[in-house]
TrEMBL record:
Known EC number: 2.4.2.4
Name of this protein: Putative thymidine phosphorylase
GO CC annotations on file: cytosol
A single GO BP: pyrimidine nucleobase metabolic process
Gene3D superfamilies recorded: 1.20.970.50, Nucleoside phosphorylase/phosphoribosyltransferase catalytic domain (3.40.1030.10), Pyrimidine nucleoside phosphorylase-like, C-terminal domain (3.90.1170.30)
Organism of this sequence: Marilutibacter spongiae
Family: Belongs to the thymidine/pyrimidine-nucleoside phosphorylase family. Type 2 subfamily.
GO MF: 1,4-alpha-oligoglucan phosphorylase activity; thymidine phosphorylase activity
Lineage: Bacteria, Pseudomonadati, Pseudomonadota, Gammaproteobacteria, Lysobacterales
Residue ranges annotated for the Pyrimidine nucleoside phosphorylase C-terminal domain, each copy included: 438-505
Class of this enzyme: transferase
Length: 512
């Protein structure tokens, strides 16, 4: 029990039977009580009151929603899905209710909102309350927002990183370099990780890659890999896979590697932003917790990418290198072209098809994805001690051409639970060009938006296929891109947005 959250004995009559409301409130536990019920009167509860709910030896803090309709009786309480899963009450169980005192870390949140500089102990207090569900989503969102922009300095990023590492499990792979890579994101289809891991592991190096699900994009590496193999591994299974194959392609969210960061990401997702200070802490805490020693960071730069200018890339690179080195990592920076999408598919299964075509050396495989993967794999290999700069790419190319990377990828998938081909969506329709000419520019953000409106990433087969690149010629009425969806409704919804935004792919008419 947390010292800041004392629970007094409930007043007589404040125990009620609980049932599942069947309402998804994301990660926020919510309690539902009828207005005027005995508990509300006895405790003086009102809407959005923080309520301590105790049932069967477990307790949680939930936000109260007051029910004015007749779907809930006055003599019962209902719990949201998140609250029900946390309490796991037995059939017919009674729950006790009492006011929950604000956790100590709310003072830290308030201080940061008003511009205070935080130290590691402050971040630790917040993360402890996050992991114990003592902070509401509203409070956590306030904290995330207060740390965004330029409101977190380098030392604060280091302090947050160390607090995140301490809050979870840590893996030790023993002696020797442990390689890793990460892309800061913002570039649709840039799915180099499965190819890079396969190349590096095929060369005999250790690369235990854990990746996240999508935060603000149509697909994360874990979403893509989940269309081909099992990714939700526990630490024991991950270790066995890596010891057997030298690498893995797993979801970090299924392990307690920087678990507080995973919860913060769930709040960042609906806010649709990812600030530099927290991004650096998120990346480096997970790399350190996963036992990595040498990490390459890929930073795509483009006017519609996450990082839009070279100066912004330099600032992010400095922060990532500073934080990484502070927690014992050797960090390499790879700045890449982020002006337009990579590959053809945007969405989990569509990107998986691209990855497989590159690994299989298939005719017509996306050349840009292949070349980027070789660039990144080469840069990762160049981090190894004693390596001749530039030699990594040559080794990477040879391994990919020989089929050894494909064999390693399949072996990793088999070790993780077996390989299966990614699927395809039942509904597909092109978005036609209004004008003929040449493609002048592609808006990464809006194209990704179309893929998300089509259902990606929650529907793995949904998304967008875009074969055009800047400078390509197109005839009037020819497809700019194709939308893939699981239902006709999602297909129409995505196409309606695409047709209303003709600047997603700007076509410049041919000069007379």
């Amino acid at each position: 029990m947390h010292a800041a959250d004392p629970v007094r004995s409930p007043a007589p009559g404040t125990c009620l039977p609980v049932r599942r409301a069947g309402i998804d409130t994301y990660r926020q536990p919510v309690l539902y009580l009828r207005r005027g019920c005995v508990v509300c009167r006895a405790e003086g509860f009102a809407a959005l009151t923080r309520v301590r709910v105790r049932c069967g030896g477990r307790d949680i803090v939930a936000l109260l929603n007051v029910v004015t309709g007749d779907w809930l009786g006055e003599g019962e309480a209902a719990l949201s899905d998140a609250a029900w899963q946390a309490l796991d009450p037995a059939p017919g169980a009674l729950a006790a209710f009492a006011h929950a005192e604000p956790p100590e870390s709310t003072t830290v949140v308030r201080a940061k909102v008003f511009g205070a500089r935080l130290v590691e102990a402050d971040f630790t207090a917040v993360l402890e309350d996050v992991l114990a569900s003592r902070l509401s989503d509203i409070e956590l969102a306030a904290f995330v927002t207060a740390c965004a922009g330029d409101r977190m300095d380098l030392d604060e990023s280091v302090a947050l990183t160390r607090a995140m590492i301490s809050a979870g499990e840590q893996i030790d792979w023993g002696q020797g370099p442990v390689l890793d890579k990460h892309c800061v994101g913002g570039l649709p289809g840039n799915r180099t990780t499965p190819i890079v891991v396969s190349i590096v592991a095929a060369l005999g190096h250790l690369i235990p890659k854990t990746s996240s699900r999508a935060i603000t994009s149509p697909a994360g590496t874990a979403d893509v890999m989940a269309t081909m193999t099992k990714v939700d591994l526990d630490i024991g299974t991950l270790r066995r896979v890596v010891e057997r194959e030298g690498g893995c392609l797993a979801s970090g969210g299924s392990m307690r590697l920087s678990p507080a960061d995973d919860l913060m990401i769930q709040v960042e997702r609906p806010l649709d932003f990812d600030s530099d200070g927290q991004m650096a802490a998120s990346i480096m805490s997970k790399k350190a917790a996963a036992g990595s020693t040498h990490v390459l960071i890929d930073i795509p730069v483009g006017s519609t990418a996450k990082v839009r200018t070279t100066s912004a890339a330099d600032a992010i690179a400095r922060r990532l290198a500073f934080v990484g080195e502070a927690v014992g990592l050797r960090v390499g920076i790879h700045v890449s072209d982020g002006r337009q999408p990579v590959g053809r598919g945007i969405g989990p299964a569509l990107e998986a098809h691209d990855v497989l075509s590159v690994l299989r050396n298939a005719a017509g495989a996306p050349e840009d994805l292949r070349e980027r993967s070789l660039d990144v794999a080469g840069a990762v290999l160049d981090l190894l001690p004693g390596t001749t700069p530039g030699s990594g790419r040559m080794h990477a190319r040879d391994v990919l051409r020989s089929g050894a990377a494909l064999a390693k990828f399949m072996a990793i998938c088999e070790a993780q639970g077996g390989f299966h081909e990614p699927g395809s969506a039942p509904f597909t329709r092109p978005c036609p060009a209004r004008l003929g000419g040449r493609v002048a520019c592609i808006n990464n953000r809006q194209l990704a938006r179309v893929a998300k409106l089509a259902g990606a990433p929650h529907d793995a087969a949904a998304g967008v296929t875009c074969r055009l690149r800047e400078g390509d010629r197109i005839e009037p009425g020819a497809p700019l891109f194709e939308v893939h969806a699981a239902t006709r409704g999602e297909l129409e919804y995505a196409l309606e947005y695409a047709l209303a935004h003709p600047d997603i792919l700007v076509v410049a008419p041919d000069a007379p």
